[in-house]
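Could you join me in thinking about how sequence relates to backbone shape in a protein? Would you write everything just below, so we can both look at the same thing?
***
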Amino acid sequence: MRLIADSSCDLYTLDIPDFSTVPLTIYTDERSFTDDPSLNITEMLDYLEKYKGRSYTSCPSVDQWLSAFEGAEEIIVLTVTSSLSGSYNSAMTAANMYKEDHPDAKISVIDSLSTGGEEVLVLLKAAKLIRSGEDFETTEKTLREYLKHTRLFFSFFSLHNLSQNGRVNKAAAAALCLLNISVVGTASEEGKISVTGKARGEKKAVRTLLQDMKNAGYHGGNVVITHVENEELAETLKQTILKEYPFSDIQIFPTRGLCSYYMERKGIVVACEA
């Protein structure tokens, strides 16, 4: 069984034989950054912080998805939320085309209605199912059900790129003009970015994220934390969670290109089972 995600998933590898990612691309009027393993995240962020023009992102093409499918008979695909990207629709078009040429192939394209850490949770679940030998139908059904019980929360210290691309309103972005103010929020049920408040300082941001997890029904279990060059805050959040839920399984990952672009420096995301 082949497992494929777009590069919003923040993973490069996974502990199964057949896992791959299809890159999204970040553009300015001067340069482009393909979100593949060769991308230098720090160099991209340095450039974007100095760049004064517009920047935007592009989803994988149908041909890129078709290339990722080639040779497989059972394929499960996970994409960034369709509310904010065309990646899901592109993958669905490719899946329909692939099945025309490979009528016996089984393909399931799953809209995560999220990104980053929540996708990591689902992919880790998928890898566990595949390693255990579950069949295609059981794996697909389990993953779709699992997504109903995962949540994502964030703390961003800049919303410039999100507001520039119409992902959040400019009023919310303006809230970060004051020093050391972060915007906190969640991925809504519709897969959109929902800003829920502000936090002054990183300690307050950590407390707010943990409280949001509790409010969503977190009582211990698997957690994924992703960050943009902010491993210290990610570790602080991890230890804060472990103080209350010492048996939690918490993993920390740096973001890839797409999430680094939208989260911007110091941004942090926590995804949990709820």
Summary: The mean pLDDT is 94. The domain at 150-273 is CATH 3.30.1180.10 (Hypothetical Protein Tm841; Chain: A;domain 3). The two ends are 28 Å apart (CA to CA). DSSP finds ten helices and 13 strands in the chain.
